[in-house]
TrEMBL record:
Annotated InterPro entries: F-box-like_dom_sf, F-box_dom, FBXO28
PANTHER family, sorted: F-BOX ONLY PROTEIN 28
Pfam families recorded: F-box
GO biological process: protein polyubiquitination
Residue span(s) of domain F-box: 35-83
Source organism of the structure: Poecilia latipinna (sailfin molly)
Domain of life assignment: Eukaryota
Protein name: F-box only protein 28-like
Amino acid sequence: MAAVVERVDGCVGSLDPDAVSLRQTSSLQEQPHQNNPLLGLPIVAIETILNFLSYDEISMLRSVCKRMDMICQRVLNQGFLKVERYHSLCQRQVKAQLPR
């Protein structure tokens, strides 16, 4: 008889080398993020927390899980758009100062 093992990612597998199938447990699907209370917070709260980190630190957090990947991607994209708008503003100011 093979022992059933629950992995950290919520999949259940068997230690039997012949049985390679994995399935999600229904109890973990009903209670998402029970192991990490940070991920249970609303997205706006997590984004506020992430705004205190550098972009390198945020990009490293993307590998935590799919939800954190989505939230970090959103924060990184917002930062990129802010830089793009600032660059456009600076470029317009420089063009306005050039002689005609």
